[in-house]
Amino acid sequence: MKTLAQVEPRVAITNVPYTITQPGSYYLTTNFATAGSGVIIQANRVTVDLMGFSLTGDEDEIGYGVWVSGQPEAPRREVVIRGGAVTGFSSGIYFEYVQNGRVEDLAISENVNQGVLLYGAYGGPCSGNSVVGCAMSGNGYYGVYLDGSQSGGRCEANTIVYGPIMTASGVLSTTNGAAGLSPWANFSR
Q1: Rounded to whole angstroms, how far apart are CA atoms 35 and 57?
Q2: Does residue 124 belong to any structural domain of this protein?
Q3: In a domain, 180, yes or no
Q4: What is the Cα–Cα distance from 29 to 145, expressed in whole angstroms?
Q5: pLDDT for 47-91, tens place per residue?
Q6: Does 3 map to a domain?
Q7: What does pTM read for this prediction?
């Protein structure tokens, strides 16, 4: 019988900031606090499991808890972030030009701007992404913010509690038309 390491080799994240440049499965080994960004992803087909641990920022306008860094002509694809807490960053999760990514089962709170920022402005792709089963509260502006060209996304089964400035649903979608986001069964207050 194969071991877990043989079936799904995983790489331990033992310090932050931590930059991922290769596809694979990564996991946190403890709670981390940092100035700037916590985990920076510069590869496709990456899974980061926070394993119930927290990434905590210094409540500055600079830095993201997890930053998936794509480009308009070279978007990142198939990135999954799951299972822990992200607090005290500019934005908790920042998908910059990402396709078919997933943010799931996270507590995302007290970030200066957004809980989750999905960015695909200037015609760059940021589509097919899902935000599922997350609890977001006390973020400065929005729980989930879609900026730019989006299609085929899902925002489902999240609890989004208002920050100081908030839309009625806790989700803001700009320049997307009707196809930008399908919000299903989110609870906002």
Answers
A1: 6
A2: yes
A3: yes
A4: 29
A5: 999 999 999 999 988 899 999 999 988 999 999 999 999 999 999
A6: no
A7: 0.86
